[in-house]
Design a protein that fits this description.
The complex is a heterodimer of chains A (299) and B (716). With 299 residues, chain A is an alpha/beta fold. Chain A has a domain at 79-285: 3-Layer(aba) Sandwich (Rossmann fold). Chain A has ten helices and ten strands. Chain A has helices at 2-16, 19-36, 61-67, 102-119, 143-155, 164-174, 191-203, 216-220, 242-266, 280-288; strands at 44-49, 71-75, 82-88, 123-129, 133-140, 179-185, 206-214, 226-231, 237-241, 270-275. In chain A, the strands form three sheets. In chain A, strands 5-4-3-6-7-10 form a six-stranded mixed β-sheet, sandwiched between helices. A two-stranded antiparallel sheet of chain A has the order 1-2. A two-stranded antiparallel sheet of chain A has the order 8-9. Chain B has an eight-stranded mixed β-sheet with strand order 19-18-20-21-27-26-25-23. In chain B, strands 3-35-9-6-4-5 form a six-stranded mixed β-sheet, sandwiched between helices. In chain B, helix 1 runs antiparallel to helix 2 (23-59) and helix 3 (102-115) runs parallel beside helix 12. Chain B has five domains: 2-62 and 679-710; 70-232 and 641-673, von Willebrand factor, type A domain (Rossmann fold), CATH 3.40.50.410; 236-336, Immunoglobulins (Immunoglobulin-like), CATH 2.60.40; 339-558, Class I glutamine amidotransferase (GATase) domain (Rossmann fold, 3-Layer(aba) Sandwich); 565-627. In chain B, strand 33 (613-619) and strand 34 form a beta hairpin. With 716 residues, chain B is of the alpha/beta class. Classes of the chains: A alpha/beta (299), B alpha/beta (716). At the A-B interface, helix 8, strand 8, strand 9 and helix 9 of A face helix 1, strand 1, helix 2 and helix 13 of B.
């Protein structure tokens, strides 16, 4: 289901962002595949559906003849990158206007990134976290395993408190092999502690990329009049006049985001801030074509 | 008033619930900005409350009884008929003002006062400019009094409150009604009150306190001061003084002209120019900067090629002050080619004594026509052969008693403005001098002689008075004549002379004067208590002798007579043998000249002149021009309000009332006609202003987004 949505919405969306951006993504992806088949000891690991951009030489014509579907052969040696998608499923991720929550957006983002990485033969794992590591699926390069991840990602509800720092510390200890951690979160935690934990991950030979997902309301605070803001993580409620508080809130939010972004940049961590009303394809293109991004850095 | 509070409370009660993810930030925000958020909120509430309060108050049409600026208004209740003497100070400073002058305001005040009188009350109106004229009987026709006030025009004369009050008190005697009111209508400035004239004010005080009996009742006149409301922002720039650095201006020598410019008041003056005019032609103009409250000199230099009458005028351009009449000042003076001096030497022809030869040489050292002083030296016995008016200065050195005819001529010469220097000597007869020259202080000599004092070792010169114009060049020389000795001199008897009239120029170590001066009539006499030659001292052998006596003779010759620098309110007098004269004023219009006399001499006289500026008389036969200068009296430029305390100290127990503005006059005399002043319109304006402020504050606090109105709260 999620895979279908990713295929229908996101990949077409990537197409929409323009020839230049698509070329950038394609060149990034196709560049990896050409080199894959030059290895000597390749071990067949399974099939995966053909996606635009795959080299036609890798199509399994036998399967096509039998099933009339385009499938690409995947070998064990191709899964040279172990990526773990860490999705924040805490209560605060349940916020979203018009029924589209931050968690929904995070799911789509995680699935899309996973899909792209699967497409280039990487192993993709998943960690669902709130105040603890709720579920952890180690990286696997097979399509079956990836579909399982997607199904789990789709089913998991938002809830619980955020304790991002401790969760990342915990993950750092549990991820034994060199890999790539993509953190998707709203980052409503102590920024300094989070930055320390991200460095912990780096110390454990993990390349880290952070997507900070926020709702437009959280960016602009465009409420008017008296409101009672009830915390989604059971952290009490606050009554205030939104008109009076708007400037102060925006300032605090900007400072929060800036501190996190600067901390990440200073530590060589790719940071991307996005809003749930932004076109996901655009966000992905932006993040993947940014100067600091290199999905192959740990090869 | 409660509406905004209720709205505020209702607004606060309509709380919408939002399930919110970023509560952590909100909690921190409230913790850090609690005080600021609280103030913002209550500030807005306060502004809204005040706005509603203003509008609500306006609906009730509030009003107040105005309280006007007045002193002692409570003592002005009238019971019965009133004899009012209105003293109108139409001096120069009443011309000051922006848009409407003080004079116009004062006329309205006087009319407001006349309006307060009833039928049957007596009223007299005395103008400062006409107070020396014969005053008419009191008026019973109030309309005539109003008309009289309406026709008052400004003048350029100096204010003189004591004289005006004296005339007012005199006029009060002509009124039949015993309840008198002396009403001084003034511009309220300090000039003209002359608090230094203590004796006159004492007399005025006692006359104000005098009672007038009517039946069994006694009435003292009430003293009322009416003036426009004080204006603390008045600024005035004026040329307060012009002087030339020489007592006698010689031809073809460079002189410095110094104009003192005074800035009173807070206004900052920009783009000002100071312009110098000589004989009506502009010779120099330069930018001039002066700060508020500052007094600065503008200095110019000029060489006058031609002897005769000349004029200087310094003008401030671009002052833009309230009193433009004093932005210029002029000076008339004489440039001399020669100054005729007559030396009457008691020792002339005495081979043993040199007599006034030293002085002769000191005044005219070159003897080749270059000397400024033209000296005629003669024996005392030949004095009657000279026409004294042909000389500017006469010097008597060691002369014996003179005949009554010569004495009378000499006294007339001094009183008419001549300069006289008298030196004593061995031939001086104290008895004769005291009897005929000094006459107990009434003669031409400054004072009587007392004892003759002698000392073989000689007396030393003690101090010099450099504040005296003739000796101003000795400001920095404290040791004048310390090396000379005075063997003999006469001490002076000053008991019959007012101390203020006598000036000591030089004095001995023991305090006795050596040189004294006293103004006699229009002229001046300087007396040396020792000899002018070597008979009684060796002063002629010291270097200061030349400088001191040249200074004194220059000073004695410096007065031009009849005077050419005049104050408004006086006529021009001009002595001339020519019959073809033409006089014109600063506006170019002819000024009539009539045959008359000045100090007993035949002279031409103009009518009394009130307008300031430069006047000129042209002698058509010789084509020479004589300038006459009329200036605003310097005291009139001092536009400072007269403090209540000063009036109180001058009037003392006689008491006074001071009313500022027409409304104060009406309120004081017609309290029943007082009308309340409504101010609802101002409240409405204030309410609108507050609503505007509320909008601005609200917008600043809210910092609205363009999509703010479309914002929706969301509850997931």
């Amino acid at each position: 289901m999620l895979l279908q949505r990713v295929q229908e919405e996101i990949l077409q969306g990537v197409g929409r962002v323009g020839i230049a951006a698509r070329h950038a993504v394609e060149s990034l992806l196709s560049g990896q595949h050409r080199s894959l088949h030059h290895g000597l000891s390749v071990e067949f690991a399974g099939h995966r559906p053909y996606i635009p951009g795959d080299d036609l030489r890798h199509l399994d014509w036998m399967v096509f003849a039998r099933t009339d579907r385009y499938n690409v052969k995947v070998f064990e040696e191709e899964t040279h990158m172990r990526a773990t998608l860490v999705v924040d499923c805490s209560g605060s991720m349940a916020y979203g206007r018009s029924g589209k929550t931050k968690l929904d957006y995070a799911r789509m983002l995680a699935a899309t990134l996973g899909f792209i990485m699967m497409g280039q033969g990487d192993a993709v794992g998943l960690a669902l976290v709130d105040s603890k590591v709720r579920e952890l699926y180690p990286p696997r390069g097979t399509m079956g395993a990836f579909l399982n991840i997607l199904a789990r990602l789709e089913d998991t509800p938002a809830g619980g408190e955020t304790s991002l720092a401790s969760v990342l510390d915990s993950l750092a200890e549990r991820l034994q092999r060199r890999g790539f951690v993509i953190l998707i979160t709203d980052a409503f935690d102590d920024v300094n502690k989070v930055l320390l934990s991200l460095r912990h991950l780096q110390h454990r030979k993990q390349d880290v990329m952070v997507y900070m997902v926020n709702d437009p309301d959280e960016e602009r605070f465009s409420f008017s009049g008296m409101h009672e803001f009830v915390g989604l993580e059971g952290d009490g409620s606050v009554q205030l006049d939104a008109d009076r508080a708007r400037e102060y809130y925006r300032k605090a939010m900007a400072e929060h985001k800036e501190t996190l972004a600067e901390g990440c940049t200073a530590n060589g961590i790719t940071f991307e801030s996005c809003s749930t009303d932004e076109d996901l394809a655009m966000v992905i293109v932006r993040s993947l074509t940014g100067p600091a991004v290199n999905l192959r850095r740990n090869r | 008033m409660a509406v905004p509070v209720v709205v505020h409370m209702v607004h606060r009660r309509r709380i919408r619930e939002v399930h919110w993810g970023a509560n952590r930030l909100l909690v921190e925000l409230i913790r850090n900005n609690r005080r600021r958020l609280f103030i913002d909120q209550w500030l807005l509430l306060a502004i809204r409350c005040l706005a509603v309060f203003m509008v609500a108050m306006a609906l009730t049409r509030p009003a107040f009884m105005p309280k006007y600026d007045s002193v002692g208004a409570g003592a002005l209740d009238r019971k019965g008929r009133v004899a009012a003497v209105i003293l109108f100070d139409d001096s120069a400073s009443t011309g000051a003002g922006r848009g409407i002058s003080s004079l116009d305001k004062m006329k309205k005040l006087a009319v407001a006062y006349i309006d307060s009188l009833d039928k049957g009350d007596e009223v007299s109106v005395i103008l400062l400019s006409q107070m020396d004229l014969l005053q008419s009987d009191p008026l019973l026709d109030l309309d005539a009094a109003r008309s009289l006030v309406g026709n008052i025009k400004g003048t350029s004369i100096a204010s003189d409150v004591p004289s005006l009050l004296e005339h007012g008190l005199e006029q009060l005697h002509r009124h039949l009604i015993p309840r008198g009111e002396i009403v001084l209508v003034t511009d309220g400035f300090v000039g003209g009150w002359m608090p230094e004239l203590k004796e006159r004010w004492q007399s005025i005080r006692s006359r104000l306190a005098e009672s007038k009996f009517s039946g069994n009742n006694e009435f003292s006149p009430k003293f009322i001061v009416l003036q426009p409301e004080d204006d603390s922002t008045v600024s005035n720039l004026s040329v307060s003084r012009i002087e030339i650095n020489r007592l006698v201006v010689p031809a073809n020598k460079n002189v410095s002209i110094i104009a003192e410019i005074r800035h009173r008041g807070p206004m900052v003056a920009h783009n000002m120019w100071v312009q110098l005019e000589i004989d009506g032609r502009v010779v120099e103009a330069r930018p001039f900067v002066i700060e508020p409250g500052e007094t600065r000199d503008a200095a110019f230099s000029h060489t006058f090629a031609k002897a005769g009458s000349h004029s200087i005028r310094v003008i401030i351009n671009g002052a833009h002050d309230v009193f433009p009449q004093d932005d210029s000042r002029s000076l008339s003076f004489q440039v001399h080619d020669k100054i005729p001096v007559l030396l009457v030497d008691g020792s002339y022809g005495d081979s043993k004594r040199k007599g006034l030869e030293f002085l002769d040489l000191a005044l005219a050292p070159y003897r080749d026509g270059r000397d400024l002083f033209s000296i005629t030296r003669t024996a005392f016995s030949e004095l009657s052969q000279f026409r004294l008016y042909d000389y500017r200065v006469i010097i008597l050195g060691d002369v014996e008693g003179m005949g009554s005819e010569s004495l009378a001529e000499l006294e007339k010469f001094v009183v008419a403005g001549g300069g006289l220097l008298v030196g004593l000597g061995p031939k001086s007869d104290r008895e004769l001098i005291n009897r005929f020259w000094a006459r107990g202080g009434d003669g031409f000599l400054p004072c009587s002689l007392s004892d003759k004092r002698e000392k073989k070792s000689g007396f030393r010169i003690g101090s010099v008075n450099p504040s005296y114009p003739a000796l101003s060049f000795l400001k920095n020389n404290a040791t004048v004549g310390s090396d000379c000795s005075i063997l003999t001199y006469y001490s002076l008897d000053t008991s019959l002379v007012n101390t203020g009239e006598l000036s000591t120029l030089l004095s001995l170590h023991n305090g006795d004067p050596l040189l004294v001066a006293r103004k006699r009539g229009m002229g001046m006499c300087v007396l040396s208590t020792t000899s002018l030659d070597l008979a009684w001292n060796d002063f002629p052998l010291t270097p200061y002798y030349v400088a001191i006596y040249r200074g004194i003779v220059s000073y004695l010759a410096s007065d031009i007579l009849p005077p050419r620098n005049l104050t408004p309110g006086s006529p021009i007098s001009y002595i001339s043998s020519s019959e073809l004269l033409q006089a014109e004023g600063p506006d170019g219009l002819a000024v009539p000249l009539m045959q008359g006399a000045w100090q007993g001499r035949r002279a031409y006289r103009s009518p009394v002149i009130y307008d300031v500026g430069l006047y000129r008389i042209q002698e058509l036969t010789s084509d020479s021009t004589v300038y006459f200068s009329y200036n605003i009296p310097a005291i009139e430029s001092k536009l400072e309000p007269m403090p209540d305390k000063m009036i109180e100290s001058l009037v003392g127990s006689a008491g006074y009332s001071r009313l500022r503005g027409e409304d104060a006059v009406r309120e004081a005399f017609n309290p029943d006609e007082r009308k309340p002043v409504e101010f609802w319109d101002k409240l409405v304006l204030a309410g609108i202003l507050l609503l505007f402020i509320e909008t601005v504050v609200s917008r600043v606090q809210s910092a609205d987004l363009p999509d703010h109105e479309n914002a929706q709260e969301n509850t997931p």
